[in-house]
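Example S7 (C-alpha coordinates).
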Protein backbone atom coordinates (compact mmCIF):
# COMPACT_ATOMS: atom_id res chain seq x y z
CA UNK A 1 0.00 0.00 0.00
CA UNK A 2 1.43 3.37 -1.03
CA UNK A 3 2.19 5.82 1.76
CA UNK A 4 0.82 9.26 0.97
CA UNK A 5 -0.36 12.42 2.68
CA UNK A 6 -3.18 14.82 1.79
CA UNK A 7 -3.59 18.36 3.15
CA UNK A 8 -6.82 20.36 2.88
CA UNK A 9 -6.73 24.06 3.81
CA UNK A 10 -3.59 23.60 5.89
CA UNK A 11 -4.80 20.54 7.83
CA UNK A 12 -3.66 16.96 7.26
CA UNK A 13 -6.56 14.69 6.26
CA UNK A 14 -6.55 11.94 8.90
CA UNK A 15 -7.81 8.98 6.85
CA UNK A 16 -7.82 9.70 3.12
CA UNK A 17 -9.20 6.88 1.00
CA UNK A 18 -6.93 4.76 -1.17
CA UNK A 19 -8.53 6.31 -4.24
CA UNK A 20 -6.41 9.37 -3.36
CA UNK A 21 -3.15 7.41 -3.17
CA UNK A 22 -1.93 8.49 -6.60
CA UNK A 23 -1.53 12.12 -7.69
CA UNK A 24 -3.98 11.45 -10.55
CA UNK A 25 -6.59 10.04 -8.16
CA UNK A 26 -6.11 13.06 -5.90
CA UNK A 27 -6.67 15.47 -8.81
CA UNK A 28 -9.69 13.56 -10.09
CA UNK A 29 -11.26 13.78 -6.62
CA UNK A 30 -11.04 17.59 -6.75
CA UNK A 31 -12.69 17.95 -10.14
CA UNK A 32 -11.92 21.63 -10.62
CA UNK A 33 -8.97 23.85 -9.81
CA UNK A 34 -5.48 24.74 -10.95
CA UNK A 35 -2.53 22.59 -9.96
CA UNK A 36 1.19 22.15 -10.25
CA UNK A 37 3.32 19.07 -9.58
CA UNK A 38 7.00 18.88 -8.70
CA UNK A 39 9.75 16.57 -7.59
CA UNK A 40 11.07 17.14 -4.06
CA UNK A 41 14.57 16.29 -2.84
CA UNK A 42 15.14 15.26 0.77
CA UNK A 43 18.34 16.36 2.45
CA UNK A 44 19.99 16.67 5.85
CA UNK A 45 21.11 20.09 7.05
CA UNK A 46 23.47 20.89 9.93
CA UNK A 47 23.35 24.12 11.92
CA UNK A 48 26.65 25.89 12.22
CA UNK A 49 26.16 27.03 15.81
CA UNK A 50 25.51 23.66 17.49
CA UNK A 51 26.03 20.98 14.83
CA UNK A 52 22.48 19.63 15.18
CA UNK A 53 21.05 17.84 12.16
CA UNK A 54 17.52 18.09 10.79
CA UNK A 55 15.73 16.86 7.71
CA UNK A 56 14.76 19.41 5.06
CA UNK A 57 13.05 19.23 1.69
CA UNK A 58 14.20 21.09 -1.39
CA UNK A 59 11.55 22.04 -3.98
CA UNK A 60 13.26 23.23 -7.19
CA UNK A 61 11.79 25.90 -9.46
CA UNK A 62 9.48 27.04 -6.65
CA UNK A 63 8.98 30.57 -7.99
CA UNK A 64 8.07 29.19 -11.42
CA UNK A 65 5.58 26.74 -9.90
CA UNK A 66 3.85 29.50 -7.95
CA UNK A 67 3.73 31.78 -10.98
CA UNK A 68 2.19 28.98 -13.06
CA UNK A 69 -0.42 28.33 -10.38
CA UNK A 70 -1.43 31.98 -10.43
CA UNK A 71 -1.52 32.09 -14.23
CA UNK A 72 -3.62 28.92 -14.42
CA UNK A 73 -6.06 30.22 -11.79
CA UNK A 74 -6.70 33.45 -13.70
CA UNK A 75 -7.26 31.47 -16.91
CA UNK A 76 -9.62 28.95 -15.34
CA UNK A 77 -11.50 31.41 -13.10
CA UNK A 78 -11.37 34.77 -14.93
CA UNK A 79 -14.34 36.20 -13.01
CA UNK A 80 -12.94 35.46 -9.55
CA UNK A 81 -11.25 38.27 -7.65
CA UNK A 82 -9.79 35.71 -5.20
CA UNK A 83 -7.25 34.43 -7.71
CA UNK A 84 -5.91 37.79 -8.89
CA UNK A 85 -3.66 38.57 -5.91
CA UNK A 86 -0.29 36.94 -6.54
CA UNK A 87 0.77 37.29 -2.90
CA UNK A 88 -2.34 35.44 -1.73
CA UNK A 89 -1.69 32.62 -4.20
CA UNK A 90 1.94 32.39 -3.12
CA UNK A 91 1.10 32.24 0.58
CA UNK A 92 -1.65 29.66 0.04
CA UNK A 93 0.75 27.41 -1.88
CA UNK A 94 3.53 27.88 0.67
CA UNK A 95 1.28 27.12 3.64
CA UNK A 96 -0.09 23.96 2.01
CA UNK A 97 3.33 22.60 1.09
CA UNK A 98 4.76 23.52 4.50
CA UNK A 99 1.99 21.61 6.30
CA UNK A 100 2.51 18.64 4.00
CA UNK A 101 6.26 18.41 4.43
CA UNK A 102 6.16 19.16 8.15
CA UNK A 103 3.87 16.15 8.55
CA UNK A 104 6.31 14.04 6.54
CA UNK A 105 9.23 15.14 8.75
CA UNK A 106 7.29 14.15 11.86
CA UNK A 107 6.11 10.89 10.32
CA UNK A 108 9.68 9.86 9.58
CA UNK A 109 10.74 10.78 13.10
CA UNK A 110 13.08 13.51 11.98
CA UNK A 111 13.57 14.96 15.44
CA UNK A 112 16.51 17.11 16.46
CA UNK A 113 19.61 15.00 16.88
CA UNK A 114 23.33 15.48 17.30
CA UNK A 115 25.77 14.56 14.58
CA UNK A 116 29.46 13.84 14.44
CA UNK A 117 29.72 15.00 10.87
CA UNK A 118 31.59 18.16 9.96
CA UNK A 119 29.33 21.19 10.08
CA UNK A 120 28.44 22.37 6.58
CA UNK A 121 25.79 22.95 3.95
CA UNK A 122 23.06 20.49 3.16
CA UNK A 123 23.66 17.91 0.45
CA UNK A 124 20.63 16.61 -1.45
CA UNK A 125 19.95 12.96 -2.03
CA UNK A 126 20.46 11.73 -5.59
CA UNK A 127 17.41 12.70 -7.65
CA UNK A 128 13.97 13.32 -6.22
CA UNK A 129 12.62 11.36 -3.27
CA UNK A 130 9.00 12.58 -3.30
CA UNK A 131 6.40 14.13 -5.57
CA UNK A 132 4.25 17.01 -4.35
CA UNK A 133 1.05 18.17 -6.05
CA UNK A 134 -0.57 21.49 -5.05
CA UNK A 135 -4.06 22.51 -6.17
CA UNK A 136 -5.94 25.79 -5.59
CA UNK A 137 -9.39 27.05 -6.48
CA UNK A 138 -11.69 29.90 -5.40
CA UNK A 139 -13.54 29.44 -2.14
CA UNK A 140 -17.34 29.04 -2.03
CA UNK A 141 -18.09 32.73 -1.53
CA UNK A 142 -16.72 36.07 -2.83
CA UNK A 143 -15.05 36.79 0.52
CA UNK A 144 -13.90 33.21 1.15
CA UNK A 145 -10.19 32.38 1.12
CA UNK A 146 -8.75 30.20 -1.61
CA UNK A 147 -9.43 26.49 -1.16
CA UNK A 148 -6.02 24.78 -0.91
CA UNK A 149 -5.14 21.12 -1.38
CA UNK A 150 -1.80 19.32 -1.44
CA UNK A 151 -0.66 15.72 -1.95
CA UNK A 152 2.67 14.05 -1.20
CA UNK A 153 3.83 10.58 -2.15
CA UNK A 154 7.25 8.90 -2.26
CA UNK A 155 8.86 8.19 -5.59
CA UNK A 156 10.09 4.70 -6.31
CA UNK A 157 13.90 4.55 -6.33
CA UNK A 158 14.90 4.98 -9.94
CA UNK A 159 18.31 5.42 -11.46
CA UNK A 160 19.00 8.14 -13.97
CA UNK A 161 19.26 5.41 -16.60
CA UNK A 162 15.49 4.78 -16.45
CA UNK A 163 13.98 5.22 -19.91
CA UNK A 164 10.47 5.72 -21.25
CA UNK A 165 8.61 3.89 -24.01
CA UNK A 166 5.94 6.07 -25.62
CA UNK A 167 2.76 5.49 -27.61
CA UNK A 168 1.80 8.03 -30.28
CA UNK A 169 -1.89 8.96 -30.14
CA UNK A 170 -4.09 11.54 -31.88
CA UNK A 171 -5.38 13.72 -29.05
CA UNK A 172 -4.90 17.19 -27.64
CA UNK A 173 -5.30 19.02 -24.34
CA UNK A 174 -8.53 21.02 -23.98
CA UNK A 175 -6.99 23.93 -22.05
CA UNK A 176 -3.24 24.09 -22.83
CA UNK A 177 -2.98 27.61 -21.42
CA UNK A 178 -3.72 26.34 -17.89
CA UNK A 179 -2.77 23.37 -15.76
CA UNK A 180 -6.24 22.17 -14.77
CA UNK A 181 -7.22 19.43 -12.30
CA UNK A 182 -9.76 18.31 -14.90
CA UNK A 183 -6.91 17.10 -17.11
CA UNK A 184 -6.47 14.08 -14.81
CA UNK A 185 -9.97 12.99 -15.87
CA UNK A 186 -9.66 14.07 -19.50
CA UNK A 187 -6.52 11.97 -20.03
CA UNK A 188 -7.91 8.87 -18.33
CA UNK A 189 -9.01 7.16 -21.60
CA UNK A 190 -5.48 7.59 -22.95
CA UNK A 191 -4.00 5.99 -19.81
CA UNK A 192 -6.37 3.02 -20.03
CA UNK A 193 -5.47 2.53 -23.70
CA UNK A 194 -1.76 2.85 -22.87
CA UNK A 195 -1.96 0.12 -20.24
CA UNK A 196 -3.92 -2.21 -22.53
CA UNK A 197 -1.58 -1.82 -25.48
CA UNK A 198 1.53 -1.80 -23.30
CA UNK A 199 0.60 -5.22 -21.96
CA UNK A 200 1.15 -6.56 -25.49
CA UNK A 201 4.75 -5.32 -25.68
CA UNK A 202 7.81 -6.62 -23.87
CA UNK A 203 8.78 -3.89 -21.42
CA UNK A 204 5.39 -2.19 -21.70
CA UNK A 205 4.63 1.47 -22.40
CA UNK A 206 4.98 4.36 -19.97
CA UNK A 207 3.63 7.54 -21.59
CA UNK A 208 1.33 8.74 -24.36
CA UNK A 209 2.71 11.39 -26.70
CA UNK A 210 -0.18 13.23 -28.29
CA UNK A 211 -0.16 14.24 -31.95
CA UNK A 212 -2.34 16.27 -34.31
CA UNK A 213 -4.52 14.59 -36.93
CA UNK A 214 -1.62 15.09 -39.36
CA UNK A 215 0.81 13.31 -37.05
CA UNK A 216 2.64 16.38 -35.76
CA UNK A 217 3.99 15.97 -32.23
CA UNK A 218 2.29 17.91 -29.44
CA UNK A 219 3.19 16.76 -25.91
CA UNK A 220 2.91 13.89 -23.47
CA UNK A 221 0.01 13.57 -21.05
CA UNK A 222 2.42 14.52 -18.25
CA UNK A 223 5.43 15.78 -20.18
CA UNK A 224 6.84 17.76 -23.08
CA UNK A 225 8.84 16.09 -25.84
CA UNK A 226 12.19 16.83 -27.51
CA UNK A 227 13.93 15.09 -30.39
CA UNK A 228 17.50 15.30 -31.67
CA UNK A 229 18.27 15.31 -35.37
CA UNK A 230 21.61 15.41 -37.17
CA UNK A 231 22.27 17.59 -40.19
CA UNK A 232 24.47 20.47 -41.31
CA UNK A 233 22.20 23.10 -39.71
CA UNK A 234 23.23 22.37 -36.12
CA UNK A 235 25.04 24.78 -33.85
CA UNK A 236 28.28 24.56 -31.94
CA UNK A 237 28.90 23.01 -28.55
CA UNK A 238 28.51 19.29 -28.06
CA UNK A 239 28.16 18.38 -31.74
CA UNK A 240 27.94 20.94 -34.54
CA UNK A 241 25.60 18.71 -36.56
CA UNK A 242 23.03 17.97 -33.85
CA UNK A 243 19.90 20.08 -33.35
CA UNK A 244 17.25 19.85 -30.66
CA UNK A 245 13.64 20.15 -31.87
CA UNK A 246 10.49 20.62 -29.79
CA UNK A 247 6.90 21.54 -30.73
CA UNK A 248 6.15 25.28 -30.38
CA UNK A 249 3.77 26.62 -27.74
CA UNK A 250 1.63 27.96 -30.61
CA UNK A 251 0.68 24.36 -31.48
CA UNK A 252 -1.47 24.25 -28.33
CA UNK A 253 0.72 22.61 -25.70
CA UNK A 254 1.35 23.29 -22.04
CA UNK A 255 4.40 25.53 -21.42
CA UNK A 256 6.15 23.08 -19.09
CA UNK A 257 8.63 24.39 -16.54
CA UNK A 258 11.14 21.64 -17.31
CA UNK A 259 10.68 22.36 -21.02
CA UNK A 260 11.74 25.97 -20.47
CA UNK A 261 14.65 24.86 -18.27
CA UNK A 262 15.86 22.43 -20.95
CA UNK A 263 15.77 25.12 -23.65
CA UNK A 264 17.84 27.42 -21.42
CA UNK A 265 20.23 24.62 -20.48
CA UNK A 266 20.74 23.60 -24.11
CA UNK A 267 21.54 27.19 -25.05
CA UNK A 268 24.12 27.37 -22.25
CA UNK A 269 25.71 24.17 -23.57
CA UNK A 270 25.84 25.53 -27.11
CA UNK A 271 23.25 23.08 -28.44
CA UNK A 272 21.01 24.52 -31.17
CA UNK A 273 17.30 24.47 -30.29
CA UNK A 274 14.36 24.98 -32.64
CA UNK A 275 10.72 25.28 -31.58
CA UNK A 276 8.87 24.06 -34.64
CA UNK A 277 6.49 21.35 -35.83
CA UNK A 278 7.93 17.85 -35.68
CA UNK A 279 6.43 15.09 -37.84
CA UNK A 280 6.09 11.86 -35.84
CA UNK A 281 6.34 9.89 -39.09
CA UNK A 282 10.00 10.89 -39.23
CA UNK A 283 10.82 9.21 -35.90
CA UNK A 284 13.11 6.64 -37.52
CA UNK A 285 15.38 9.52 -38.49
CA UNK A 286 15.72 10.90 -34.96
CA UNK A 287 19.04 10.22 -33.30
CA UNK A 288 17.58 10.79 -29.80
CA UNK A 289 14.31 11.55 -28.08
CA UNK A 290 13.49 12.53 -24.49
CA UNK A 291 10.59 13.72 -22.34
CA UNK A 292 10.65 16.55 -19.82
CA UNK A 293 8.64 17.14 -16.65
CA UNK A 294 9.13 18.76 -13.26
CA UNK A 295 9.33 15.28 -11.69
CA UNK A 296 11.44 13.36 -14.24
CA UNK A 297 13.36 16.41 -15.52
CA UNK A 298 14.76 14.90 -18.75
CA UNK A 299 13.89 11.23 -19.34
CA UNK A 300 15.37 9.43 -22.37
CA UNK A 301 12.97 7.60 -24.68
CA UNK A 302 13.94 4.02 -25.56
CA UNK A 303 11.09 3.24 -27.97
CA UNK A 304 8.31 4.90 -29.94
CA UNK A 305 5.22 2.80 -30.69
CA UNK A 306 1.97 3.19 -32.62
CA UNK A 307 -1.40 1.52 -32.10
CA UNK A 308 -2.17 -1.64 -34.08
CA UNK A 309 -5.70 -3.02 -34.20
CA UNK A 310 -8.03 -2.80 -31.23
CA UNK A 311 -5.50 -3.43 -28.47
CA UNK A 312 -2.05 -3.97 -29.96
CA UNK A 313 1.04 -1.81 -30.44
CA UNK A 314 4.08 -1.88 -32.68
CA UNK A 315 7.46 -0.27 -32.07
CA UNK A 316 8.37 1.95 -35.02
CA UNK A 317 11.54 3.53 -33.60
CA UNK A 318 13.92 1.77 -31.23
CA UNK A 319 16.51 3.80 -29.32
CA UNK A 320 17.10 1.21 -26.57
CA UNK A 321 20.69 0.52 -27.52
CA UNK A 322 21.62 4.21 -27.54
CA UNK A 323 19.42 5.85 -24.91
CA UNK A 324 20.35 8.15 -23.38
CA UNK A 325 22.26 9.64 -26.28
CA UNK A 326 25.05 12.20 -25.81
CA UNK A 327 22.79 15.27 -26.15
CA UNK A 328 20.18 13.90 -23.72
CA UNK A 329 22.89 12.92 -21.24
CA UNK A 330 24.59 16.31 -21.39
CA UNK A 331 21.34 18.23 -20.91
CA UNK A 332 20.12 15.90 -18.17
CA UNK A 333 23.35 16.16 -16.21
CA UNK A 334 23.44 19.96 -16.40
CA UNK A 335 19.75 20.18 -15.52
CA UNK A 336 20.04 17.96 -12.45
CA UNK A 337 23.06 19.92 -11.26
CA UNK A 338 21.04 23.11 -11.55
CA UNK A 339 17.87 21.98 -9.77
CA UNK A 340 19.53 19.95 -7.02
CA UNK A 341 22.15 22.53 -6.16
CA UNK A 342 19.76 25.32 -5.31
CA UNK A 343 19.01 27.62 -8.24
CA UNK A 344 15.49 29.08 -8.11
CA UNK A 345 13.98 26.76 -5.52
CA UNK A 346 12.74 26.88 -1.94
CA UNK A 347 13.86 25.03 1.17
CA UNK A 348 11.22 23.69 3.55
CA UNK A 349 12.50 22.79 7.02
CA UNK A 350 11.34 22.56 10.64
CA UNK A 351 9.96 25.76 12.25
CA UNK A 352 12.67 27.99 13.66
CA UNK A 353 15.38 26.19 11.74
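Recovered sequence:
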Amino acid sequence: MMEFTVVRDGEVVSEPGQDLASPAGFLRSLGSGAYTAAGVSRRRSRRRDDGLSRMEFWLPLWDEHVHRLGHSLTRLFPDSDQVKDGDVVREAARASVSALLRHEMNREGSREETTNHDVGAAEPEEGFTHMVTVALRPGPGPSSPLACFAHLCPLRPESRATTASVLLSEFRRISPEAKSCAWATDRRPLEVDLARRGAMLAGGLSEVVMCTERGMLLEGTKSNVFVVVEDDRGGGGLNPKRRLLTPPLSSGILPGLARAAVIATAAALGIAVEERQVDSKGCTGWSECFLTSAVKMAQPVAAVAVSVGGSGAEVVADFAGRAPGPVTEAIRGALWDRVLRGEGGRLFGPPGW
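Notes on this example. The chain has seven helices and 17 strands.
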